[in-house]
Design goal:
460 residues, UDP-N-acetylmuramoyl-L-alanine:D-glutamate ligase, Rossmann fold, alpha/beta, 16% strand, 2 domains
Length: 460
């Protein structure tokens, strides 16, 4: 949940009669139990801020104190909320001013949590760094202090943590860079929040295999429109085939070689011929962009693809060719459209520089009426109706040329089953990331493709 959604969800519980003190008790004791399970009786310093995150810290300290842990609280300020003051009143251990606090083997950060909008001031943050740097183990409660909750922004130059314990619900910044890399192991504590959110962590898809009534067309015919660079289109076609498509065709200029005998290559000598082939009602999804090129012929091929009534995946050069006209070209299509830019390609589709991955993607999706999958270390998938998913199953080894072409093929194979563009993009992204984990380190795109059947098997 975003900060605002979390605030509303907590208020809904309060309106039903659950007190703020009770929510704080659930959050603090749940976090304390998690800390206890992992670090047992490690001497601990809890840094408590003046707000409710600090109140959680007092609850944590008291619970650990009851377990016999050598625990101390450091506080830069007296609590400012009623719930935090109540929590402090129940704390029976030692409280020191921030400047007087000494490091402990375990550092628990309860200075600031969800809703922080500005950097922590130097006067407090210098002590924060001093105390955290000397600890052997660092735990952040809800979010590390200095992290803005919704966009993955680090408002301060924060240190890395061993674990971050999210309270009530995960926040977008738990999965967005650069904040994500600072948080260590992520765990969540349930406090009874049950409100809905348009944001979600990308789930593992549950897929259905073909039935005895299926045939190659019912399982989906994927058409790949090839351009100047043949290798990229070949990778896309192979990925579509190995991720479940019943039939894969490549429409290409003379001289194109099929990557596998089971993949059909149909030669296209002019745009009129391509238009006719793309009008085949049996085509379930079209992919264009991988290896397309950026010359006049590439623009003609793209124009033909955009004019079809079939679901469409736009990747790579197709996005560069459309550039600032993207929204106008795509929003009039009657069929589902998915665009899969990386940050550089995304910059060409919008007038302002990429600042917030989710917000900016949602804005482009609304303007273009197109599903957007913004690739990167924290891949984001959004729909024109404001749904957003963040991929938590990332793999740095995917920073390899050709893996984006593979992703386009996987998404097209899912889109060809008749599901929504948003769902196809989500399922395709999960399968892509999982295949990368199965492939191990230093894989090639071909090795990634070889893992797709095993990845699909996990989801059946």
């Amino acid at each position: 949940m975003t900060a605002v959604e979390m605030q509303l969800a907590e208020q809904a519980l309060i309106d039903k009669g659950v007190s703020v003190q009770e929510l704080m008790r659930l959050a603090g004791q749940g976090a304390a139990q998690m800390i206890w399970r992992i670090s047992f009786d490690l001497p601990t310093l809890v840094l408590c801020g003046p707000g409710n995150n600090g109140g959680d810290g007092y609850v944590i300290a008291e619970w650990l104190f009851e377990k016999g842990v050598d625990v101390c609280v450091a506080a830069p300020h007296e609590p400012k909320t009623d719930a935090a003051r109540h929590a402090k009143s129940l704390w029976r251990g030692k409280t020191l001013a921030l400047a007087d606090a000494q490091p402990a083997p375990q550092f628990v950060d309860c200075l600031f949590g969800t809703g922080l909008a500005h950097a922590v001031g130097d006067k407090w943050f210098d002590h924060f760094l001093r105390l955290s740097a000397a600890a052997k183990r660092r735990v952040a409660i809800d979010l590390p202090s200095g992290v803005e909750s919704d966009h993955g922004t680090c408002l301060n130059d924060i240190p890395g943590f061993d674990m971050t314990i999210a309270l009530g619900a995960f926040k977008p910044s738990h999965f967005l860079e650069p904040a994500r890399s600072k948080m260590g192991h992520l765990v969540g504590i349930d406090i009874g929040v049950a409100a809905e959110s348009n944001f979600g962590i990308l789930p593992k898809p549950w897929l259905s295999g073909p039935t005895s009534q299926d045939h190659k067309y019912s399982r989906g015919l994927v058409a790949v429109v090839a351009g100047a660079m043949h290798g990229a289109a070949q990778l896309t076609a192979m990925a579509a085939q190995k991720s479940g498509a019943g039939y894969v065709k490549i429409f290409a200029s003379p001289g194109f070689e099929a990557p596998h005998p089971s993949i059909v290559v149909e030669i296209v000598r002019d745009i009129a011929q391509l238009q006719k082939k793309l009008s085949d009602s049996r085509i379930s999804a079209i992919v264009i962009g991988p290896g397309l090129g950026r010359d006049d012929r590439a623009k003609e091929l793209l124009t033909a693809a955009l004019a079809t009534n079939a679901p469409l995946v736009l990747d790579a050069d197709a996005l560069t060719v459309t550039a600032s006209q993207f929204g106008d070209l795509v929003k009039t299509r009657s069929a589902e459209t998915i665009a899969t830019p990386h940050a550089g390609e995304f910059a060409g589709l919008v007038t302002d520089a990429l600042q917030y991955r989710i917000d900016d993607s949602l804005q482009l999706a609304e303007q273009s009426q197109c599903n957007i999958l913004l690739k990167g270390s924290a891949t984001v998938i959004v729909s024109p109706d404001d749904k957003a998913s963040i991929s938590a199953l990332s793999c740095p080894w995917l920073s390899t040329a050709g893996t984006g072409d593979v992703l386009a093929g996987i998404i097209a194979s899912r889109l060809a089953t008749g599901i929504s563009g948003y769902k196809a993009a989500c399922e395709g992204q999960w399968l892509h990331s999982r295949a990368a984990h199965l492939a191990g380190p230093t894989f090639t795109p071909e090795m990634l493709i070889d893992q797709l059947p095993a990845t699909l098997q996990e989801c059946l």
